[in-house]
Amino acid sequence: MPILFVLFIFTLLISISVSFTRNDKTRETIVSAGSIIMMLLDVGFCAWAFMQINAAGGSIEFLMPETLPVEIFNYVIIVGEIFLFVLISVLSIRHDKYHCIILSFMGTAPVLWMDATGHSVESGAMLRIDTLSVLMFMVVGLVGGLICIYSNGYMHDYHHHHLDVEKRPWFFQSMLFLFLAAMFGLISADNLAWMFFFWEITSTISFLLIGYTKSEEAVNNSFRALWMNLLGGCGFTVAILYSAFMYGSGNLTDLIYKGAWAPGIVIPVVCLSFAAFTKSAQMPFSRWLLGAMVAPTPSSALLHSATMVKAGVYLLIRISPLMTENLAGVMVTTIGGFTFFAASLLAISQSDGKKVLAYSTISNLGLITACSGVGQPAATWAAVMLLLFHAVSKSLMFLCVGAVENATGSRDIEDMHGLIVKMPKMAFIMTVGICGMFLAPFGMLVAKWAALKAYIDSNNVLLVIFLVFGSATTMFYWGKWLGKLFAVLHQSETLRDIVHKSEWYVMYVLTGLIIILCTTFPLIGQIFVQPMLSVEFGVTVGQIISDSDVRVMLMMLIMIALMPILAIFLIYNRKEKMTMSYMAGANAGDDRHFVDAFGGIRPSYLSNWYMDSYFGEKRILFPSLCIAAGFVIVLMILAIGGAIG
Amino acid sequence: MKISKSPWLLHYDASSCNGCDIEVLASTTPRFDVERFGIINTGNPKHADIMVVTGGVNDQTKHVVKQLYSQMPEPKVVIAAGICACDGGIFKDCYNMSGGVDTVIPVDVYVPGCAVRPEALIDGVVKALAILDQKRDAMKNHATCEVHYDNAGKGES
Amino acid sequence: MNYMILIPIAIYIIFTPIVGFFLEGYDRVVSSRLQRRQGPPFLQPVYDLIKLFEKQAIVVNNLETALVLGFTIFTIFSGCIFFAGGDILLVFFAFSLADMFLVLAASSANSPYSSLGSQREFVQMMAYEPMTLLTAIGFYMVCGSFNVSDIINQDVPAIIRTPGVFLGYCFILIIKLRKSPFDLSTSHHAHQEMVKGLTQDIAGNVLGILELGEIYEEVFLMAIVALFFVTKNPMSYVVGIVAALVVFFIMIVIDNVFPRVKWSNMLWITWGVTLSLAGSNFLILTMLKMAGI
Question: Mean pLDDT, to the nearest integer, of B1-5?
Fold first, then answer.
């Protein structure tokens, strides 16, 4: 218990001290040292909590520290919520975005009213840690710490390239740490009101970071993100009110354990799912995540791929036992499956690296959402695994794209042509990241395998169709990106390596993490995920993936690892002849220029296929948003109406 | 087994009037059916064993001919199909002509005719197959090691 | 670990080329007879492959060689999982990995034609991928297991309950076997607008390795056709083999009858067929399952 507080307070302190340090060198030292200590604390906490959980069997609850009365924390939260409301109001008035004030008021006021009039329910534990929270702590702490270290070098280069942006890296980095502290709170909270408070903090920080550059586009995008997340917050508030008045309970765990046979349980579940949709950028609310890409890359990596958007699906995974075969489950699986497919179609037409990553994030979150909506242990297992693999791979991809952008001045996939020659190390790391997202022996596919099985077992034909078609389109957009990286340009030189050492270290560590995850996923499943599922679903959850399959996958991994060695033997001392690639015999000295009909030399340019007239944003974004919105509205009405009626 | 059992063709029109080209293509049709000998018209120098050139070589095509030849893996043979490919034909004295294909790359079989008859061409190909086998034997006896970057056919401006 | 599974794997690795050469020879002879010509000798594919291994290696870069090798190794590997009675979904996943190696090899050549071929191959993969996964799912729904060893121990052949899936799978075989009208990325036929597409810059013995991989792939794909007919009864294997040959013959006829289509036609037609045939089959199967039949 104390170590959790130390972790929380320490992260807060780093955040505060960074925000007051104007000297670049000092601040970078604080950030690096702070991140490393934070990661150590985090690992220490996880180890401690894990032992405690094993001893207690299931989960550990913290009623509240005995030395401090609960009221103090409640006052802190009340003050914090009022502060957030005032902050949002002031900024909204300054930018003439009054709708945000209304939404913020609608979300905050009922909770405050409950606290003030004593309607709030404080039964049971305020904090609860189980093995799922431990996993989340690992992801948030480790990935978050690494990204904070990375942000040192990145922000340095960023302000070097973007002279028009006001230089406030202290603000940026302090927000990153503050965000991490809020995330720690969010994943350990069990009291809904506390969870809501941290939920709103992450929304607000995301809003502040998106608007970091203060350009008109950034401000507009940040307000779009804000209003969507505040709208979701309103759903959260309704869920809090409902469970307090109907069940006299303010705890998520109570809701899960008692709720299964409580009447009308669908209503809070639908409301919480709605909140999760906005947070995890599911289809009608997906546009804010695209807009969020204007923010500097570390925030995209940390908030908009690895952690904050995971808060939504984390909540869904938590409440997934309540979605077994009811309309809430139908809503969540339909929206998730649809988002998975539609976002992966949209990703095909994008050439901006970060936009592809954003769409792919939305798409994968859709898959996780769909898995958690099935409400079967096997599907939820897949959801947790997807969450893990996605967090690590996607943050690595974001960091790579950011580093490439700083090194070459572009983050367009077309400009990554021949990266394997220009920046071999980077291309290798990116390959691991991309393969981790969709290829066979790597993580995501393992989870997809489990997901597919669970969908069939739950007789969900629509979801199966979404999944198989979504997988196909996912393969297309990642594959053509990989193809770009792999193009070997003749007579081309390696670019000067201007990526900071610290950035390299971070990317190496993340690459290592992916490989470790890929080789140890059965263990992770056994140690962390299955006990949690057994407790939540109340049944003993056995092994999800059979031993023989695991063996085959490990064999494939080993074979891939051996491939380069084999290739070296094959290539070494071989009687072969290097020629230029075929350009109808008209190459002009290399494979990038040809002789045209007038005898002049022209460069050739190879581009990927984007199919903009088929899968472009202009063509399918609006219809798919409409369809998804229709799904959400109709299914919400059906679910809530059915529960009331 | 003889390598000549599976000869793949590359057909290149250096400056032909298309008369010979049509006959080359005609020999792949069911009437003449060169696939009886396992011959396939690949169109890709990297897969080809036999290069069939029609028409004489002029200033614009000589680099292309050279380059295509350099992109073919050993062993390989070249057939000059039609009288223009053999020595320039009626275009011989044109200002831009280099002459026959042998002015640029070594030619193994000459098949004259204007236009070349498919029967004659098939006969030439069968002759070329014998040379292909010889070359393969020679290659086996004196394995060469070439690991260099080929810059043939650098374009001119 | 059960060492008995090594026997089918060994048989597969050793005898597949023979079966593959038979299929390829059959293909070429039947094609030429359909075109009313004599055509090559039946052993022509063998001659071709031996020749390729005798030729000098011409490469554009060394990465390409490694990737082509990856294609062949993983194709053989996924066939091994299949014939060892492994998980059929995993087999398809390993297959798409192998395919990915091939496409990346073409991309790495950095030539216009290779690039064109690789982009088209991506589209082809996008077109057939849903159906391959649905095929595996079809077996799962009928047999309750993804394992091939369980699928072949059924009392009734899978095709009885999955005719739609079977037809859909046969449809994507046209793409997989690189038959016209869907041979967009590369083709065994003569000179065309993208020359050799995918295999443009792969030459000599590297091309030989690639062709070998494709032979293993072909045999594996036809084995899945047979899998639809296989039951406990040993005679069913004969039925399966005959069915595979018939399907292969139909593929050859289709190849010779249709001209190549545009990519968008291929994509929409294939997805449409997948949805209508396999999708409706699944709906019916699910309803039967929910009704407890």
Answer: 75
Instruction: Return the half-sphere exposure (C-beta side, CA atoms, 13 A cut-off) of residue A197.
Output: 24
CATH number (domain holding residue B110): 3.40.50.12280
Q: Cβ contact (<8 Å) for B148 and A490?
A: no
Instruction: Determine the residue of chain A that is closest to C289 in CA distance.
Output: A459
Predicted local distance difference test score (pLDDT) of residue C272: 95
Evaluate whether residue B153 is within a structural domain.
no
Residue at A277: amino acid letter? F
Contacts of A432 (CB under 8 A, 6+ apart): A396, A511, A514, A515
Q: Is B117 exposed, middle or buried (0-12, 13-18, 19+ CB in 10 A)?
A: middle
Angle between helices A424-438 and A443-457 (to 10 degrees): 10
CA of B73: which chain C residue's CA is closest? C56
Q: In chain A, which residues have pLDDT < 50?
A: none
In the block, residue with structure tokens 């604080």: A30
In this complex, do C74 and A576 lie within 8 Å of one another by their Cβ atoms?
A: no
Q: What tens digit of pLDDT does each residue of B73-125 get?
A: 888 999 999 999 998 889 988 998 988 999 999 999 999 998 899 999 999 99
What single letter denotes the amino acid at residue A452?
L
Other CB atoms within 10 Å distance of the CB of residue A538: 12
ipTM: 0.94
B44 lies in some domain: yes
B20 located within any domain: yes
- Chain C residue numbers with beta carbons less than 8 Å from the beta carbon of A471 are 129-130, 133
In whole angstroms, how far apart are CA A530 and each of A317, A520, C2?
13, 14, 28
Question: Which residues of C, range 197-256, sit inside 8 Å of A by Cβ?
Answer: 200-201, 204
3-state secondary structure C103-135: HHHHHHCCCHHHHHHHHHHHHHHHHHHHHHHHH
Range of the domain at C260: 3-290
Kindly write down the DSSP assignment for every residue of A405-430, as one continuous string.
HHHHS--BGGGGTTHHHHSHHHHHHH
The residue whose two tokens read 């064993």 is B49
Q: Are strands A127-130 and A59-62 parallel, antiparallel or unpaired?
A: antiparallel
Torsion of CA B18, B21, B22, B26, to 10 degrees: 170
In the structure encoding, which two tokens stand for residue A540, read together?
Answer: 């003993």
Q: What is the number of structural domains in chain C?
A: 1
Per-residue pLDDT for B152 more than 60?
no
Give per-residue pLDDT as tens, C231-271. 988 899 999 999 999 999 999 999 989 888 999 999 999 99
On whether residue B31 sits in a domain, the answer given is: yes
- Residue A578 is given by DSSP the state E
Residues of chain C positioned with their CB less than 8 A from the CB of B72:
58
